[in-house]
From TrEMBL:
Domain MOSC: 18-168
Domain of life: Bacteria
Coiled-coil regions, chain positions: none
Gene3D superfamilies (alphabetical): PK beta-barrel domain-like
Protein name: MOSC domain-containing protein
InterPro entries referenced in this protein's UniProt entry, alphabetically: MoCF_Sase_C, MOSC_domain, Pyrv_Knase-like_insert_dom_sf
PROSITE patterns registered for this protein in UniProt: MOSC (PS51340)
Length: 180
């Protein structure tokens, strides 16, 4: 399973939308250079208030272009970086990957998927109804979160739109993604 990078985005502030960049640099153990969520410990404001020493499992946020297109078809104005993601991908079913999957991005970078991003009230504030559009349920009642996946940087490097992404699944048994 392989895909590609559609766009990359970063912001030095905790603003909701991240502006698209020509390239971003991933730094091992920290995240996206210059991004407000980079750091060895949790940088998400709500989670940091609870436990500032917790390891940062949310160094990089990825979302599939296919998800953005699905939302656009529902009438939402979304685009790369709009809901705070650092990397917009195509051709990979991100939400179906198991925890521990490694994504080799471009020539150097490796991101390990740690879990799901849970849609929050900030998404609802961005566009009314968007938070609920990013939630669904399976027939047995399990909640499906479609706001993308989170990861940590294993190997750093510069990435840009057009870079290839190679998927490396972890050894079985696979663990389903949970919210981080």
């Amino acid at each position: 399973m392989n895909g590609s990078v559609v766009a990359v985005a970063a912001s030095p502030t905790h603003s909701f939308t991240k502006p698209v960049q020509t390239s971003i640099r991933l730094i091992a153990g920290l995240g996206v250079e210059g991004d407000a969520h980079a750091g060895p410990t949790v940088m998400h404001r709500h989670a940091r208030a609870k436990n500032p020493e917790k390891p940062n499992l949310r160094q990089v946020h990825l979302i599939a272009q296919e998800t953005l297109k699905e939302l656009g078809a529902q009438g939402f104005e979304v685009y790369p970086g709009a809901i705070g993601e650092n990397i917009t991908t195509q051709g990979i079913a991100l939400l179906d990957l198991p925890a521990g999957t490694r994504l080799r991005i471009g020539d150097e970078a490796v991101v390990e998927i740690t879990g799901l991003r849970s849609p929050c009230k900030l998404i609802e504030g961005f566009q009314e109804g968007l938070m609920y559009a990013l939630l669904d349920k399976t027939p047995d009642g399990r909640v499906i979160r479609k706001a993308g996946v989170m990861g940590i940087v294993i190997e750093g490097g510069v990435i840009r739109a057009g870079d290839g992404i190679a998927v490396e699944l972890p050894p079985a048994p696979h663990r389903r993604l949970e919210v981080v």
